[in-house]
Specification:
alpha+beta, six-stranded mixed β-sheet, elongated, binds zinc ion, zinc-finger
Length: about 260
């Protein structure tokens, strides 16, 4: 079962007839034995193959076979050659360099996806309002940080022949308590991001707040930076200490390393 070709042939037996993705454990079957994947199963009343009743029957034999088969990465058609045990598949695909890029703008409003090369043209065409500053040392000015609710401030910084997207995101945590996340993302791969370092600095009356880190790749997205707190995080009180008339200036310095 382990050789590449026969494994791929076996993997095709796990294809869901509805979405053509693989039906992976727990594998459910209809009363006649046709399988359907666990994403499609809840949306179906009848077996898509024989129109028979679906019921709640697991196919333990197929599950055992599944644990012996290597499944191709879902981005195979984009060029990925990896084949993996089903238990490693989701994790690999999450970080797979062949996964399409989502629009790097924060918020879920733009559903665009494409290759890395298409990201900048997309931003220039569809997000014209984003300001771009040239240079490795710039000021990211967020105006009206006291605006109620969840708000994003976005700008672009261009230096060392690369484009970086700077995001300040405000989230409401509870009544009057907000958290601010400042994220620097490279319009590039994770590997490219590793050759840069950035520093964020807030300056106030006899106070200074500094954060230094490696930029994130836009492949990972703003939300993953926020979830792992891999960004400059501060609360409303800190924001007030550094704000001037409700505006916050964040010094951004990017270096190569
Ligand atoms: Zn399916
Ligand atoms: Zn059936
Ligand atoms: Zn892959
Ligand atoms: Zn977009």
């Amino acid at each position: 079962l382990s050789s590449g070709n026969s494994s791929n042939d076996l993997a095709s037996l796990f294809e869901c007839p509805v979405c053509f993705d693989y039906a992976l454990p727990p594998i459910m079957q209809c009363q006649s034995g046709h399988i359907v994947c666990s994403h499609c199963r809840p949306k179906l009343q009848f077996c898509p193959t024989c129109r028979g009743a679906l019921g709640n029957i697991r196919n333990l034999a197929m599950e055992k076979v599944a644990s012996q088969v290597l499944f191709p990465c879902r981005y195979m058609s984009n060029g990925c050659e990896a084949s993996l045990p089903h238990t490693d598949k989701a994790n690999h695909e999450d970080g797979c360099e062949f996964r399409p890029y989502n629009c790097p703008c924060p918020g879920a409003s733009c559903k665009w996806q494409g290759s890395l090369e298409q990201v900048m043209p997309h931003l220039l065409q569809q997000h014209k309002s984003i300001t771009t500053l040239q240079g490795e040392d710039i000021v990211f000015l967020a105006t009206d940080i006291n605006l109620p609710g969840a708000v994003d401030w976005v700008m672009m910084q261009t230096c060392f022949g690369h484009h970086f997207m700077l995001v300040l995101e405000k989230q409401e945590k509870s009544e009057g308590n907000q958290l601010f996340y400042t994220i620097v993302q490279l319009i590039g791969t994770r590997k490219q991001a590793e050759s840069f370092a950035y520093r964020l600095e807030l300056n106030g009356q006899k106070r200074r707040l500094t954060w230094e880190a490696t930029p994130r790749s836009i492949h990972d997205g703003v939300q993953s930076a926020i979830n792992s707190s891999d960004c400059l995080v501060f609360d409303t009180n800190v924001a007030r200490l550094f704000a001037d008339n409700g505006n916050l200036s964040i010094n951004v310095t990017i270096n190569t390393c």
